[in-house]
Every structure is written in structure tokens, then in C-alpha cells.
Design a protein that fits this description.
The longest helix is centred in the C-terminal third of the chain and has 14 residues. A hairpin with a 4-residue loop joins strand 7 and strand 8. The protein starts with 10 loop residues before the first strand and ends with a helix. It has one domain: Beta-lactamase (3-Layer(aba) Sandwich), CATH 3.40.710. It is an alpha+beta fold and 169 residues long. It has a 4-stranded antiparallel β-sheet, sandwiched between helices. Strands 1-4 form a two-stranded antiparallel ribbon. Strands 2-3 form a two-stranded antiparallel sheet. Helices cover 25% and strands 14% of the residues.
Length: 169
């Protein structure tokens, strides 16, 4: 999935030590009193050996940047990547009808933005946020971790909204 885009450090975990060292830590493991790094914090994934359909993908900033650059300029992706203008446009289309929140393949309209603002967002469960605006030819990444200290969503929601407003003014 990721190799055709040159995303060589993105993969399902648990990661080997040299790659885990480059990942942000996630949740505090109560059993060992350490923050998990490069391994899923989700208990279901951990029971399944570290990966399942809802958890276990790890990456680093370099790979996120590569992915977002391809989303803004899909024709620059290698042909074998399966990206292209049509795929990218489709992925940035609401595909969930009346369901809320509305979503595309990976993205949903950024909260607090109007449709004409053309800003889409993908939030990782542990906190990282990625925004893209093809209309503004701009993307942004906020590397955060909401589980490092607490599962309370509001402080991170406030940070995300402020960051988005600053990045897409």
C-alpha cells in the first residue's frame, strides 16, 4: 500500500526498535509504567499480536509529508501507486450520504468549515491530525498525542481547531 509512494517506514506494527524509536509514544501501559511506542495501545490489537483492522499502523513525519504532497499533486505519484487525479478527487468526496459525521475514504470535511472552504481532515485516534485543501494547494500536519496524558478529547479538540484556523487563513 505505502511502498509505491516511497513511504518506507509506514507499516503495521509492532515495529522493530529502530523504527519504533522514530514514532510518537502512545498510551501509558499500566502494567509496565511506560508509554507504548511502535506498538498498538488498543487492547484488541494487542490480543491479536499487535495489529487488527482498527489499529496498528505506524508512520513518521517524512512519510506523512510524502503522502500529503501526493494528495495535492496526485499525478506526481508513481503509476503503480494507484493514485491519480480521479482517485484523489473521489477520496475527497463525501461518501456517507446523510450519516454524520460525513466522510470520504479517509477524510471528512473539517469541523467548523464551510463546504466552499475545501478543507478536509483525517484525525488519528491517538491525536495526529492531517488537513488538506486542494483548492488552496495547502496541507498541514499536527503531530499530537491525546492519550499520552488523558483520554479527555476537549483540550486536543481546541488545539486542533486553533491550528487549523492558523494554517488555512
Amino acid at each position: 500500500t505505502w511502498q509505491p509512494l516511497g513511504m518506507d517506514t509506514t507499516r503495521f506494527g509492532p515495529l522493530p526498535g529502530h523504527l519504533a524509536a522514530r514514532c510518537a509514544p502512545t498510551e501509558l501501559d499500566q502494567d509496565t509504567d511506560t508509554h507504548l511506542k511502535g506498538t498498538a495501545h488498543d487492547f484488541s490489537a494487542r490480543l491479536l499480536g499487535g495489529v487488527c483492522g482498527i489499529a496498528g499502523v505506524f508512520t513518521v513525519l517524512d512519510d506523512l509529508v510524502r503522502f500529503l504532497r501526493y494528495m495535492l499533486n496526485p499525478d506526481s505519484a508513481p503509476a503503480q501507486a494507484g493514485f491519480g487525479t480521479e482517485w484523489t478527487a473521489y477520496s475527497l468526496t463525501v461518501l456517507t450520504g446523510g450519516l454524520q459525521p460525513a466522510r470520504g475514504l479517509f477524510w471528512h470535511p473539517a469541523p467548523g468549515t464551510a463546504e466552499e472552504e475545501d478543507v478536509w481532515v483525517h484525525y488519528g485516534f491517538t491525536g495526529t491530525g492531517m488537513w488538506i485543501s486542494p483548492g488552496q494547494d495547502r496541507w498541514a500536519v499536527l503531530l499530537t498525542n491525546k492519550l499520552y496524558y488523558t483520554r479527555d478529547r476537549q483540550p486536543l479538540t481546541d488545539i486542533r481547531n486553533s491550528f487549523r484556523k492558523l494554517a488555512f487563513v
